[in-house]
Amino acid sequence: MKEKTAYLISIGDELLIGQVKDTNAAWIAEQLTGLGVSVKKIMAVQDTESEIIDALSEAVAKVDIVITTGGLGPTIDDITKKTFAKFLNIEMEYNEEFYNKVKAYVEMRGGDIKEMLYNYSYFPKGTIFLKNRVGSAPGMLFSKNNTKIISMPGVPPEMKSIFVEEVIPLLNKDNSDFHIIKKTILTAGELEAVIADKLKDIVNDLPKNMSFAYLPNLGRVRLRLTARGNNKSKLEQLIQIFSLKIHERIGDLIFGYEDDTIANVVGKILSENQLHLATAESCTGGMIAHFVTSISGSSAYYKGSVIAYSNEIKEQILGVSHKTLEKHGAVSEETAKEMVSGVLKALNCNIALATTGIAGPTGGTKEKPVGTIWLAVGTKDRIETLKLQLGKNRLKNIETSTVLALNLLRKFLLSKK
Amino acid sequence: MKEKTAYLISIGDELLIGQVKDTNAAWIAEQLTGLGVSVKKIMAVQDTESEIIDALSEAVAKVDIVITTGGLGPTIDDITKKTFAKFLNIEMEYNEEFYNKVKAYVEMRGGDIKEMLYNYSYFPKGTIFLKNRVGSAPGMLFSKNNTKIISMPGVPPEMKSIFVEEVIPLLNKDNSDFHIIKKTILTAGELEAVIADKLKDIVNDLPKNMSFAYLPNLGRVRLRLTARGNNKSKLEQLIQIFSLKIHERIGDLIFGYEDDTIANVVGKILSENQLHLATAESCTGGMIAHFVTSISGSSAYYKGSVIAYSNEIKEQILGVSHKTLEKHGAVSEETAKEMVSGVLKALNCNIALATTGIAGPTGGTKEKPVGTIWLAVGTKDRIETLKLQLGKNRLKNIETSTVLALNLLRKFLLSKK
Predict the structure, then answer these.
(1) Domain co-membership, B161 together with B216
(2) Does the structure show a pLDDT above 60 at A110?
(3) What is the structure's pLDDT at B412?
(4) B residues 199-218 near A, CB within 8 Å?
(5) For position A279, which CATH number holds?
(6) pLDDT for residue A75 is more than 70
């Protein structure tokens, strides 16, 4: 059986003025992909009859499943249900059961909206209801020319509940043996273009039912392998084979898979080795500490940080020598190294990470332009350093150097073993 | 002149499998709305020739402006530029200037990707480039049948930079007499529902061509006033009148306007008063320092922070007394106050901010459940504290308490005058 296809249509003016981000579409897309349904297009359209009918017409002509969200609330600007009836060429019908149920629900909360509720209780004749366990607007199922049309309210918890409890069983029932298997490989410390060049031949060798994508983000590049087809175990095997090939080629750049973050990977290694980390941050200004402490349980391996935004603190708390600061400057390999040694002592830890640099956008010199950043990691016995030359954007420089510092720590910890 | 219309088209398979959320579209939609352009549809389509051409054809037939994002990276899966050329019926042309510029950029970072770069340097003939100041892929401007087509890379900071610096001036140049005037009022420290209740009568009195929206985000609520019409100075006057009414009613909650952040507002007050700030963070784990140092020039008023993720550091570096920690615990008003006094001394500053609490999701007790957080701000003469009772979500608790701590500092600074 071939792959089923879908369109997602989000209805609502608030999406088109950017007031509300459409998080529903991405969530449904991920769910459908997991069910082996291929999403061909996502649309956000105005809450007007002509726009909704145009979108439904296009969708019904092209795909097997149409999922709409939004436009089902009780407020007066809602025309979605009437538009569905018009599109399907069926009449609206009053639903007394629905009226009574919602009336009870509203009265319980002290509301009085009888007239609005009466209008709200009309549905296209023959609607198959999809139960909403967390709100009043039900999901609805229609069909036209072999295309299933599923309509859900736009409130995320209601939509998710209907999707998980009603839509998934429905789609599974008439679903095929078609599968989409994904694997995400996480790298840090190298540019997308350089990785792409290293993997060129492997990617070119991918069979037709597999695809590969690069998703870069400040110091990191996610690599995504996807395989599609009927034979699930064969697909898993293919993913495994190519994942291994990629690991053989660029294993030194890979820090994790799927939902790993550089901070949780580092945290696991620190925990396993019963180490206590301290950080001394200048240009990263607390973002390393923030990344590390975003992980629940980090207090087991993280003692704290000294954020030294002035030379005075570098000297007094971290014990960087005045001579070093005078001779080499705050942004130097020597200062970064002394920050490591200093914070190891000050916070009584056995491993430390330090950063010092010019985050920008101003403050650069000819010898040390904006984006010059020194990273250092070490123990009392061994210190390693890395110099970065980044761009002029302050926030990008801060996050990129945070990621690359944690990656340097990761490599240091692994090489220590 | 009538309102201009636009379609937004996001290109990329990763959007359709839900792996990446399309934050670009909502951002662009908000910008365009602000410029008086009405967004008619947002689409996410596959990175294939036929899907891109279908979407462009529909858009060019319906609206004045088409904005596409994504599909402009250097990797081999990118076919966007070729597809644009085909759609516009023009040839691809090698651009040597572009090749040399990107080559220099990549070589500086030690990469070697000549062949790929050569292919990447082809553009549709006659492309008008929109300068990308933060990455290598330029924006592009084309036109067809009186519709402007603007193509930008999908990486958010690059897209935003091109939009703000290149696209906005372009759209303003041929813009109409239809105006949308907005004003954003920024509040911190109060819930959306409470603010809505306080402003109820003012919002009900708004004339028909004005609208009002609440945009809440972790400790902050943005209030947005919008007025639409032809008479620009009349609209500006209306916005001014209602902005003043709101300020009279809830001025104590307002920390700024438009693009202000709590960190830059605090930074300005510190600068004006020639004060030096130190922070001592436990549960916020560096996020206050990160907020403060995100502002360019912050080193003038920020000396640094001690992130004390263990009691040992609270005692040894910050001088919190062992007795206080034993008697009241690390999460207590007393500890927060001693952290302020301690960091003032340790970092030799004249004003300090401290946080200590249980960020969660675990670690709570009956007396001090998850989300219990103490904030303290002060000088050597006066210390003020605030207790928060937040929820169970670690990242939300960290960011909310960061915002409320900086807001406490803001109010302390203003009350000192």
Answers:
(1) no
(2) no
(3) 97
(4) 213, 215
(5) 3.90.950.20
(6) no
**Contacting B residues, span 132-171, partner chain A, CB-CB under 8 Å:** 134, 155, 157
Q: Could you tell me if A236 and A181 are in contact, meaning their C-beta atoms sit under 8 angstroms apart?
A: yes
Closest CA to A239 of A213, A210, A260: A210
Does this model's pTM top 0.90? no
pLDDT by residue (tens digit) across B214-263? 877 889 998 989 888 888 899 999 999 999 999 999 999 999 999 899 99
* Residue A328 phi, psi dihedral angles, 5° rounding: -105, -15
- Do residues A134 and A238 both lie within one domain? no
- Mind listing the pLDDT tens digit for each residue in B161-218? 999 999 988 887 766 677 778 899 999 999 887 898 899 899 989 998 898 888 778 8
The total of other beta-carbon atoms located within 10 Å of residue B176's CB is 12
Which conformational region is residue A110 in: left (phi greater than 0), alpha (psi within -120 to 50 degrees), or beta? left
Strand (E) or helix (H) holding B302: strand B302-308
Q: Which two tokens stand for residue A266?
A: 């580092």
Q: How far is B302 from chain A (nearest CA, A)?
A: 7
Picking from A236, A257, A278, the residue at the C-terminal end of a domain is: A257
Whether B184 and B139 map to the same domain: the answer is no
User: Using CA atoms, how far apart are residues A129 and A150, in angstroms rounded to an integer?
Assistant: 10
**Which residue type is seen at B246?**
I
CA distance A22 to A32: 16
In this structure, the answer to whether residues B242 and B272 fall within a common structural domain is no
Residue A302, chain B, CB below 8 Å: the answer is yes
Distances from the Cα of A282 to the Cαs of A83, A99, A100, A311, A331, in angstroms?
59, 63, 64, 10, 9
Domain count, chain B: 3
pLDDT of residue B144: 94
- Specify whether B270 is located in the same domain as B236: no
Quick one: which H or E segment has residue A68?
strand A65-69
Final residue before a domain boundary, out of B257, B281, B316: B257
- CB-neighbour burial class of residue B169 (10 A; exposed 0-12, middle 13-18, buried 19+): exposed
Structural domain containing residue B84: 4-173
Query: Do residues A129 and A12 share a domain?
Result: yes
Cβ–Cβ pairs < 8 A, chains A and B: 268
Same domain membership, residue B198 and residue B71: no
Q: How far apart are CA B172 and CA B193, in angstroms?
A: 37
CATH number at residue A230: 3.30.70.2860
Shared domain check, A212 and A74: no
Residue of A nearest to B55 (CA): A41
State ipTM.
Answer: 0.74
Q: Is the link from the previous residue into A138 a cis peptide, with omega within 30 of 0?
A: no
